[in-house]
Predict the structure.
Amino acid sequence: MNVKELNPESSPSAAYGARIRELREARGWKQEELGVRMRYSGTHVSAVETGRKMPTLRFSRRADRAFNLVGSTESFEREWGEIRNGNLLEGFPEFLGLEKRASEIRLYEVGVIPGLLQTPEYATVLAESRAKRTGITPEQAQELITVVAERQAALIRSNPPLVFALLDESCLRRPVGSPALMRAQFDRLLEFADQPNTVLQVIPFTMGEHRPFSLPLYILTMPDRAVMSYAESAQQGYLERESTVVLPLLTAYHQMQAAAPSQAASVDIIWQLRKGTL
């Protein structure tokens, strides 16, 4: 076996694979033996050990059971989470943890339907497109889809948050996937708007330069009424906790809400786009 391929310093996935091998060899197990315990082939175990295949959540959980690491600080599930978060923008993993606990979520999105409102098919097309553009692996693309699903689960928990969604018209006008996929995505937006804990408004192009934001923005209100914001560019995300910075953003958000079409008018815009009459 090529030792250089197992260099744990070369990448997070290589470190993960090297640790699998170390624990396996410490127990005197062959790759095939570990594969039997985890219900994977020895070839699959070998590919993870050498970094040729990215570990998945399922693989990590089975490794934890095989090595008796479930729930420990040394668990492979924990390490997998760190690897997965390494594919996300700086600040975003921390934001995700806060979003799950927020009592109010305010978002403004440009150019793409926000993750909280995406259908699985829409999320899949975006992830696959990113894989083609940036060279991330199919496994990494699948993890991005998983993140979307996990975020949406927060909307259907007991005592769900209030969610205010402002979508720039470009989110609706940009075609993603097939026409049928976009119709299903429009249906998802209409369903979202019909929920008792949501408000959906479209920011039309006609607002022009009067929009206070040009980049996506999220503002969270936590159960203790603390507020924080998350904004990102193409290369970096930033989580802001300082209220002197966040409160002016919240004020601008309220002002944009007041200037935007009502939810009823916004729903009508979506219906017309769905029918192809706008």
Observations:
- The chain is about 50% helix and 10% strand.
- The domain at 3-85 is CATH 1.10.260.40 (434 Repressor (Amino-terminal Domain)).
